[in-house]
Amino acid sequence: MPVLPMPRAKRFKADRLEMYLENQIQGSTPAPIDDSLTSLDWLQNFSIFSSHPEGPSGPGCPSSQEKLFLRRLGTDFPSSPAAGDTAATGMLRYLGSPVISGSDSTVGPLLSWYPCIPMQPIPLVEVDYKTNLKVKPPYSQASLICMAMQASKQPKITLSTIYKWITENFCYYTHAEPSWKNSIRHILSHNKCFRKVPKQKEEPGKGGFWQIDPEYADMFVNGIFKPKIRIQKRNKGFQGVSPDPKPLLSKNNRSTTKSTKTPLLATKPDSMRRDILAAALDDVLWAEVTVDTVTVPPTFGFGLSEDITATCDHPPPTTLTVL
DNA sequence: TCCTGTTTATAAAGCC
DNA sequence: GGCTTTATAAACAGGA
Question: Which family, according to the similarity comment (predicted)?
């Protein structure tokens, strides 16, 4: 099952969707962003670890816009490791093909969302966080904790096991200042998604066990911590859906949720419906986009496929479906 | 002594 | 500017 960290530059994802939808609405064949995309020669020299963050330039190289895109992929949208022993390899996907589906267990949901936009073939750039000690994994520490828990395949694990899994799968933390362990402990204590399970008297060792609170289990999409979907207003008159009013964090790390209403998309003009969908997907962990459908997780606030279908009913036979 | 766990405080970044 | 999220630092207590 794919995973994806909460992206910082979420707006970018919506931009891409809007671009896609715009193509669909205009009834045009999606065009490449840049002719340079058809040439992949530059990729041989491309590395996110390059001392030249701008990457290669010149004929056959990506445009500055595409370089920006790649940087965003590298910093904001790397795929997550599978929540298992084979974790810690991120694949950067560039201008996708519909090859990878959302059910793929080794690639992130972004990789299922983005590549389905019918554009260009996909080169991959692999980031091995397991061996690269210079690059900090782009996953929140809550996500790392969850990955460790899922990788253990145990209902509960100890703090030391979490440490061990993180250092084994993310070399960065092996050489990092030990303060990250303090952060891990802080998160375990503060984040309500994690629950402490006291050790029984017959169980040896220090400390207790930790597990994901079942009440908040849906906060983790395949190991990636995802705060409840909070669809912000992007259009006046529209409020998204937040399925759970409970705060995620306690004390000084408190979090609030806003009361929301299910939008009546059918009552909105086409342009607004398109924006609403884009805004909604902006807050969704992943989505599959193909010529015919947009698929988002079941936890997505919209429950009515008819609503989303109504957002892009032109040109036929294009439809957008929310499962 | 070291590890574990809690609590408080602060900062950066993004969003509204 | 305020709020939220995330990360970091530090102090402290208790247990192995």
Answer: Belongs to the FOXJ1 family.
What does the pLDDT look like over A272-313, one tens digit per residue?
445 445 544 443 333 333 333 344 333 333 332 323 332 332
A141 Cβ nearer than 7 Å to chain C strand: yes
Please give the C-alpha separations between residue A258 and each of A30, A246, A261, A285, in angstroms, as whole numbers.
37, 10, 10, 19
Q: What is the pLDDT of residues A83-114, one digit of tens each?
A: 344 445 554 333 222 222 233 332 222 222 22
Q: Is the CB atom of residue A182 positioned under 7 angstroms from any atom of strand C?
A: yes
Q: Give the tens place of pLDDT for each residue, A7-60.
A: 222 233 333 343 434 443 343 333 333 333 322 232 233 232 233 333 333 333
Among A86, A238, A84, A219, smallest CA distance to A150 is for A84
CA of A187 to C1' of B7 (A): 12
In this complex, the answer to whether residue A177 has its CB under 7 A from any atom of chain C, a nucleic strand, is: yes
d(CA A96, CA A77): 14
